[in-house]
Amino acid sequence: MSAPENPRWLNEIGDELRREVPVRAAWRSQLLDDIARLPVPTAEDEIDDGDRDSPRRSASRRIVLTPFTSLAAAVVFCALGASAMYVALASRAPGGRDIIASRSRTDPSSTASASATAQELVRFQLSAPNASHVALVGSFNEWNPVATPLTRDPATGTWVVSLRLPPGRHVYAFVVDGDVTADPAAPRAADNDFGSANSVVLVSGRTS
Amino acid sequence: MRFVTPPSVPGFNRVVMTDATLVRRVLEGDTAAFTMLVDRHAAACTRFAIRMLGNREDAEDATQESFIRAYRSLGRYEERQAFRTWLFQILVNRCRTAALRRQRRQRMFLVDDNAVALASVRPAAESSGVREELQRAIDALDPDQREAFLLKHVEQLSYDEMAAATGVGVSALKMRVKRACDRMQWLLREVSDVGT
Q: A158, A196, B30, B63: which has the highest count of C-beta atoms within 10 A?
């Protein structure tokens, strides 16, 4: 079905191009034979051929050292060094404390309660006065929409929750009445985790 | 754990089992469930690949590689994303790789200018037929525009799904689709009155 706002000629083209392309039985059979020869995948499987096609939950791939990879490694190490320097400098900036994200800056007092295990208390907040339920999902709670509900401040209509997070980069989003939405006050996830609206918080792990 | 293979009533499994359920079953050892995923998505994947690459042979190779890679990395699939979008993400990359591979082949072997010129002459036998004209118009698009146009107006993905599948931002995708539509309209006006 074509979108109603499209011009007629475009709908006609779409309909024509959308006509079923028959799948050859021999091709299907060959594909299923090839798949049958593969080991059964499990939830913990990793691809070991440098595949970059699918999003990854974690990254442990075989590295082959070539001149190109050496150069790439040098560039990556420089970038990591620069990032580490940025994190270190930013974490000492006034008001920035230990956490580099708009979420944490909204609560400077949060770092005062940093635990000895280097986890940092990060405050997430979202202004959504008309929402009836807001939850936090992210890499730290397995994207579970019921694990981390936010509480609403009736005076301001702001939803808040504070979490202790380990040092590192955490991708997250809010679920507002069932809709996933990025944090409007935080950086968007720069990578291609799943293409939907996600935000990023960096936790430095430093204690002040 | 061993699952009993579901009854092979046409349409039955399609209704009662979501793609995510089928993925879970594969990961739990019921590899037959992947056959259902292949049967659900192979036609659309092949169609997209044929439109992208212009011929069935390359398209079938790209689609086959995509399914095999999807199977091997099924453990990384997360249900918050539609399986189709996830699969198309792999397929888009396979098609890009296939197109690059073909470019290299052409650079290696088509060094005779006359041969190149002759190869680009449109065969008279194919000069009729709406679909052939459409495919020619699609072939004439820049690859980025072609990819965006097909995902949007043929596979009917949302812009968010397209962004997930291509790794390109929504704004850039909208621009590509717009330019592709303008170009398609112009190209098709050249051969017929489709655009009027």
A: B63
Given a contact cutoff of 8 angstroms between Cβ atoms, the answer to whether A145 and A110 are in contact is: no
Count interface pairs A-B at CB distance under 8 A: 147
ipTM over 0.85: no
Residue pLDDT, tens place only, B91-133: 999 999 988 887 776 655 544 444 444 444 344 334 447 778 8
Could you give the CA distance from residue A180 to residue B160 in angstroms, rounded to a whole number?
12
C-alpha span between A46 and A152 (Å, rounded):
41
CB contact under 8 A, B72 and A195: no
Residue A164 main-chain phi, psi, to 5 deg: -90, 125
Structure tokens at A107: 């609560």
Count CA within 13 A, CB hemisphere, residue B182.
7
CB pair distance less than 8 Å for A47 and B35: no
Show the tokens assigned to A175.
Answer: 């679920």
How many angstroms away from the CA of A107 is the closest CA of chain B? 30
Q: Which amino acid is at A159?
A: W
Closest CA to A111 of A126, A127, A125, A94: A94
> A122-174, pLDDT tens digit by residue?
889 998 888 888 999 887 876 777 789 999 988 888 999 998 888 877 878 88
Residue of A nearest to B95 (CA): A53
Q: Does B89 reach chain A within 8 Å, measured CB to CB? A: yes
Beta-carbon separation of B72 and A42 below 8 A: no
Name the 3-class secondary structure at A29. Answer: helix
Nearest to A53 among B31, B89, B163 (CB): B89
**H or E segment and range at residue B68:** helix B56-72
Rounded to an integer, what distance in angstroms lies between the CA atom of residue B117 and that of residue B124? Answer: 15
- Judged by a CB distance cut-off of 8 A, whether residue B51 touches chain A is yes
Phi, psi at residue B80, to the nearest 5°?
-70, -15
B184 in contact with A at a CB cutoff of 8 Å?
yes
